[in-house]
Design a protein that fits this description.
Helices cover 21% and strands 34% of the residues. The chain has 134 residues and is of the alpha+beta class. The structure holds iron/sulfur cluster (2 copies).
Length: 134
């Protein structure tokens, strides 16, 4: 099975080799979809973990015990077209290429099939045009 997670690392953990420990201890495959460090030096990682369910559950418990905030991506994101001003602020933030500019119309479009529901665009959008449906 596979699970997509958003991991938020406090500054004290940003430079620790936590993901390589996950691979060694739990035998999981992973795919990093996005990684960045905020100006406050907190780290965010959008990660896909693949492996046996109980090993993924163990890995999540291990991360939480270290002080990593773990969110599962199991929600749906939608664009409220009427609120979007086509400012493009969300496009470079999206790790999945789900938000894109139509070069002919200069309209920002959302491809829901590509969206991994990481929620990053919800914070980036100044007009609250990207919303979560739970
Ligand atoms: S939630 Fe937003 S930023 Fe994340 S993948 Fe979907 S469209 Fe992109
Ligand atoms: S950040 Fe919000 S308003 Fe700007 S293009 Fe993206 S969805 Fe539209």
């Amino acid at each position: 099975m596979d699970k997509k997670l958003v991991l938020n690392f406090p500054p004290s953990l940003v430079d620790k080799p936590i993901i390589s420990c996950l691979v060694k201890e739990f035998g999981l495959d992973f795919n990093i979809l996005k990684a960045y460090v905020t100006p406050e030096e907190e780290g965010t990682l959008v990660l896909e973990l693949k492996g046996e369910e109980e090993k993924i559950t163990g890995a999540i418990a291990y991360l939480k015990q270290l002080g990593v905030k773990v969110e599962l991506l199991s929600k749906e994101v939608e664009m409220v077209r009427e609120r979007c001003t086509d400012c493009t602020a969300c496009i470079p933030q999206c790790p999945a290429g789900a938000l894109w500019l139509d070069q002919a119309t200069y309209q920002v479009n959302f491809t829901s099939e590509k969206c991994i529901a990481c929620g990053i665009c919800l914070k980036a959008c100044p007009t609250k045009a990207m919303v979560l449906r739970i």
